[in-house]
Amino acid sequence: MALSLRSVSAVLELQSGQVVSIGTVQRRVAGAAVVAAQVLAEPLTAAPAVVMLDGLWGTFMADTGERRLDKKGRRRKVKQKQKVPVLLAYGVDPVTGEREVLAWVRGKTEDTDAWVCLLTMLYERGVRYETGLRLFIHDGSSGLDAAMEVVDFGPVRRQRCIFHKLRNVVQAVVGTGEMKREERQAYVKAVLEDACSVYEAPTAEEARARAAAFAKKWAEREPKAGATLERDFEQTLTYYHVLAEAQAGGERWLDVYLRTTSGLERFNRHLRTKWRQAGAYWSESGLMGAFWLVSQKGAEHNKTTRTGWLAPIVAQMLDSG
């Protein structure tokens, strides 16, 4: 619920009428970490068809290997703040929208080794093509691309997140220095809506045609935006092929679950809130326990019926810009 340990103690005391120490809460969180490790190691006989991959950054107090004496003469570990990522894998049912956390790992960076570790955890749990996996959705980090060449998932397809692609297009918009705030916002919105229309095309062929029209229209005024859309463009069209394969197999998958990592981004917001509330995690068990508790809270609302996608994307990007 994104509460600090002290706040959790206060809430429990109000509910039960008994004093609950912070130490007790810490031990319960550590117990949740044990449960998380057990559950996330259990093999799966059936894998979700879609797996979203992303990294979440926050502060962790890492052990320096040094020791010092405190005021009571006890030897204490010396820790140092580090910004570290937690890499996550999120399974999605493309028919119902049901979602679940499949694996996570704390790394030092989002490098190849960290991603290999996460992908290996997935593979060992049984998340494979043979058990139903058909698509990975990710934001295109170089470390992840390299890791996927190490851990072989066979014919599983890869989809570049369209949200991240469109965000990069917006960030590449230059405009002119004479534009007032309202004029620039309208200008950016026009570029963004044209880029969004590419992915509203009914077929991959039409999407390619619309991308070419976008490049032609904005070539002189916004060449960087055009180049950004064109870069790795084919990897953003994978979902058309996946939809066609599902339809050929008699299944009705919703493209809203195949184009972006938005579902995982929403889950990450809850984790970020918790991480900001904690400030910094001092132990692996504290971080993992808290994440597991947040994930279980989120599991109560793990469905979505959202089918529209253009309006929320435009609104979010313009607000953040």
Molecular structure report:
The chain has 321 residues and is of the alpha/beta class. It has 2 domains: 5-160 and 260-304; 164-235. The protein is 50% helix and 17% strand. It is built from 12 helices and 5 strands. It is globular, with a radius of gyration of 22 Å.
What are the SSEs and their pairings?
Blueprint lengths: L4 H12 L5 H18 L10 E20 L5 E18 L6 E8 L5 H14 L9 E4 L3 H9 L6 E4 L1 H11 L8 H18 L5 H15 L4 H8 L7 H11 L13 H17 L5 H15 L11 H11 L1
Parallel strand pairs: 1-4, 4-5
Antiparallel strand pairs: 1-2, 2-3
Helix content: 40-55%
Distance separating the two termini: 29 Å
Oligomer: single chain
What's the number of extended β-strand segments? 5
Mean pLDDT over the full residue set:
86
The ordered H/E elements are HHEEEHEHEHHHHHHHH
Radius of gyration: 22 Å
How is the main sheet built? 5 strands, mixed
* Tally of individual helices: 12
List unreliable stretches of 5+ residues. 303-307
Tell me the strand order in the biggest sheet.
Answer: 3-2-1-4-5
Structurally, how many domains make up the residues? 2
Strand content: 15-25%
Q: What is the general shape?
A: globular
Give me the secondary-structure category: alpha/beta
Short description:
By secondary structure, the chain is α/β, with parallel strands linked by helices.
Defining key terms:
single chain; 321 residues; alpha/beta; 5-stranded mixed β-sheet; 12 helices; 5 strands; globular
